[in-house]
Amino acid sequence: MNDMTVPREEREAKLEGMGCKRKRVEDVRFTQGKGNYVDDIKLKDMVFGDFVRSPYPHARVKSIDTSAAEALPGVLAVLTAETLKTVNLAWMPTLAGDVQMVLADGKVLFQNQEVAFVIAEDRYIAADAVDLVEVEYEELPVLVDPFKAMEPDAPVLREDLEGKTEGAHGARKHHNHIFEWTVGDSEATDLAFSKAEVTVKELFSYHRCHPCPLETCACVASMDKIKGELTLWGTFQAPHVVRTVASLLSTIPEHKIRVISPDIGGGFGNKVGVYPGYVCSIVGSIVLGRPVKWVEDRIENLSATAFARDYHMTTELAATAEGKITGLRCHVLADHGGFDACADPSKWPAGFFNIITGSYDIPTAHVAVDGVYTNKAPGGVAYRCSFRVTEAVYAMERAIDVLARKLNMDPAELRLKNFIRPEQFPYPSALGWEYDSGDYETAMRKAMETVDYAGLRAEQAEKRAAFERGETRELMGIGVSFFTEIVGAGPTRNCDILGIGMFDSCEIRIHPTGAAIARMGTISQGQGHQTTYAQILATELGIPADMIDIEEGDTDTAPYGLGTYGSRSTPVAGAATAMAARKIKAKAQMIAAHMLEVHEDDLEWDVDGFRVKGLPEKTASMKEICWAAYNNVPPNMEPGLEAVSYYDPPNMTYPFGAYICVMDIDVDTGAHKVRRFYALDDCGTRINPMIIEGQVHGGLTEGYAIAMGQEIAYDDMGNVTTASLMDFFLPTAVETPFWETDWTVTPSPHHPIGAKGVGESPNVGSVPCFSNAVNDAFAHLGVTHIQMPHDNWRIWRECKRLGLTG
Ligand code: PCD
Ligand SMILES: [Cu+]
C-alpha cells in the first residue's frame, strides 16, 4: 500500500515523474550487450539476401544473366525486375507520391542502384553469387548538377514519366522537373522589395548529407504459408505504416501481417522510408517459404538509402535602413535524385520549409520550390530536422547575418530588433503557420549574458588587430543563431502519410497490484522512450515510473500510430499518453468515491491518490484504487482499469533556442577550433532533463559534423565519392567540441502537459550557428557567404582567395 501519510516530497520523489533526471532504464540492456537488433534475429531455415548494384549512375540495362549465380551451390534464387513483374512489384510507390524501381527495370538512375537480389544459404555465398551475375549496361549521359537539370537538352532521366505534364504535386515544367511548390503572397512581397531601403540576396547551398545511423537498414521477412501470415522484423521508424503498405502491395490482409521493430541502432530519419531490400526480402520469403534476412553494409547505406538536404536556396531579405525586416523571398532548387522518395507528410512536397520566416515578425514573404531529378540516390529525409526545417532555418539565419553586415549592425542586435514579441502569440506567420508560444527575447538575452557576448565582440576586435600586426595567424568568429522549430506532425486535417492521418496513440493497462503496461504507436531508436513515457504516466497517475512498462514497435500489440521522426513522439504520442492516463484517473476517482463513500466532487488529487476535501486523513491511494478496480467497483461500472487514446493534435508545437559559437580559424591550414558552444533550448515542459541534455549533445554533434565536413559528394561522372567512413565525416570524441547547455521553459498552451519536441532542435539550430561563426571570422574582409561544408580544405581555399595565406 502506498501510504499517503508520508510527506508529499517523499511520495513525489518515489514516483520519478516529469522533471526527474531518471536514469535511462533501457541502458541496463544496451550497456551489457543485451540489445535485440534485427541482425540478432535468427530463425530456423533462415536464408540471406544481397544486392547486385549498378556501377553506373545512368545506363540502360541491356541484359542480366543470372545463370552462373544460380548454379553456385547454396544459391536459392536470383530476383530481377522481370521476376518482380510477375507479382506486380517491380516498382513501388514512394512516400512523396512518386514511384521507384525496386530492381532496375530497363535502366539505372544512380550509382549503386539495386539491379538484382540474390538469396543464398548464407551471407558469404550470397556475396559470391552477386559477383557472378552478369549485367550488360549501355552508358547514358549523366546529370549531376541540379542547376542543369531543366536545360532544354538535359538528358531524359525518367522515361517512365515521358509525356506526363502532371505529377503528384501539380504541373511539371520539364522532363526532369518533379514539382513546383509555392506559398505566400508574391505580389505583396514584390511590393515590399520595391519599396525597401535595403535588400540582400544570396545563394545558400545546403549540401547533401546522410544520417548514417550506427546500425544500417535491415529486415527479416518470414512468410508462414500454412497460416498465410507474414512476420516482418525491421529497422522501421514507422512500423504500422509499413504494415499497411506491405498489405496494400502484397494483398496479404493487414491482420495477417505482423511488423516488429525491435531495438533500433539509431534512425535519424534514415529508417522512415521503404527500401527495395524490404520488398525483395518479402517476395523472397513468399517464393521460397523460408525466412529471408537482409542487412545492408555501410557503403550500401551511405550510397543507396535516403540522403538528406541537397537544397539550393536563393534567399532575399528586404529591410528598412534601421533594420526592420519588411519582406522575405526565397527560391529553392531541390535535388531529389533519381526518384522523389522524400519523407514528408503527403501534402508537403518541401516539408515545412515555409517556416523560413523563423523567429521574426516578417509581414510578407514568398517561397517557391522546384524539385528536380538528377542521377543521384533518392531520399530527402529529415535527418534530425523535421521536414526541411533545418534548411529553412539555415537560409534565414545566414540571410539575417548577411543583412546585419550590410546594415553595419551587430547580428544579435538585428535579431532582437525583429523577434516576434511574447504578446504576439499565438502568432500567425506570413507563410501560414500559427506559432503556439514563445519568449524569444528572454532566451536570447540569457544566452548573450551567459557567454558575455559584448566581451567576446571586444576580444574579436582585439584579435583582428593582432592579426593585422602579424602577431597571430588565427581569426576569431562568433556565430549566433536563433531558431524556431515546428514539430509534432501533425493535425490530421493537413498531415497524412499515404492517406493515413498523423495522429498517435497510447493504450494503458493497469494490473490489480498497481503495476502497469503502456503501449504507443511510436518507436524509440535510442531516444529513451521507455524511460520518459513512464515518467509522464507516473505524474499523471501517481504510480511509480518503475512500476510501468513501456512497449512499442509490435503491430500485433501496439495501437496504430504513425511512428517516430520529426520529433513527433512527445508532441503527439506524449499527449496521447497524458490523455489516456486522464481517462484512467477519471475512472479511478469514481472508484475512490465509492471506496470512501463520498461524492466524486468531494475528492482532490494529491500526488499518488485522492483525499476527501476537508478530511485530509481520509484517503484512497492509487495502489488501493487499482486493487479495488478488480473487486470493488461502484454498481453498474465495468471492472478493470484500462484506457486508450488516439490523439489528433490541434496544432504543431514550436520549440525554439538561442545558440552561440566561438571559433578560432588558422588561416594557414584552414583548421578550426570550437572554443565555446552554448545552446539554450526551450522545449516547453521538460519531461527528463538528463535525456534532453543527451538529445541536445547528440544533435549538436550531428550539426557540427554537417557544418564542418560531412557530405555525400558526387564527382562529375556521377560517382559517389564519400560512401565509406574513410571519406564520410563522423565525429568521434576527439573531434567533438565541449557543449554547454541551458534552457528556458515556455509551455505549449495546447499540449496536455505543455511539452514540445526537442530531439531535432539541436541540429536545426547548430548548423547555421557553426556556419555563421565561420563566416563571421571573415566578415570584416567583405565576405558575405562561404558555402558549407566548412572542412579545412575549403576554409583554407577561402583564405588563399582572400590573400591571407600563401
Ligand atoms: N519536452 C521534452 C521533449 C522531449 N523529451 C524527451 O526527449 C526525447 C526526444 O523527444 P522528441 O523530441 O519528441 O523526439 P522523438 O519523436 O522521440 O524522436 C525523434 C527524434 O529523435 C532524435 N534523437 C535521437 N536519439 C537517438 N539516441 N537516436 C536517434 O535515432 C535519434 N533520432 C533523432 C531524430 S532524427 Mo528524424 O527521424 O530525421 O525526423 S526526429 C528525431 C524523448 O525521449 C522525450 O521523451 C523530454 O524529456 N522533454
Ligand atoms: Cu529537413
UniProtKB/TrEMBL annotation:
Keyword Membrane assigned: no
Gene3D superfamilies xref list: Aldehyde oxidase/xanthine dehydrogenase, a/b hammerhead (3.90.1170.50), Aldehyde oxidase/xanthine dehydrogenase, molybdopterin binding domain (3.30.365.10)
Domain of life: Bacteria
Matches recorded under SUPFAM superfamilies: CO dehydrogenase molybdoprotein N-domain-like (SSF54665), Molybdenum cofactor-binding domain (SSF56003)
Stretches that traverse the bilayer: none
GO molecular function: anaerobic carbon-monoxide dehydrogenase activity; carbon-monoxide oxygenase activity; copper ion binding; iron ion binding; molybdenum ion binding
Lineage: Bacteria, Pseudomonadati, Pseudomonadota, Alphaproteobacteria, Hyphomicrobiales
Purpose: Catalyzes the oxidation of carbon monoxide to carbon dioxide.
Keywords: Copper, Metal-binding, Molybdenum, Oxidoreductase
The protein's name: Carbon monoxide dehydrogenase large chain
Cofactor(s) recorded in Swiss-Prot or TrEMBL: Mo-molybdopterin cytosine dinucleotide; Cu(+)
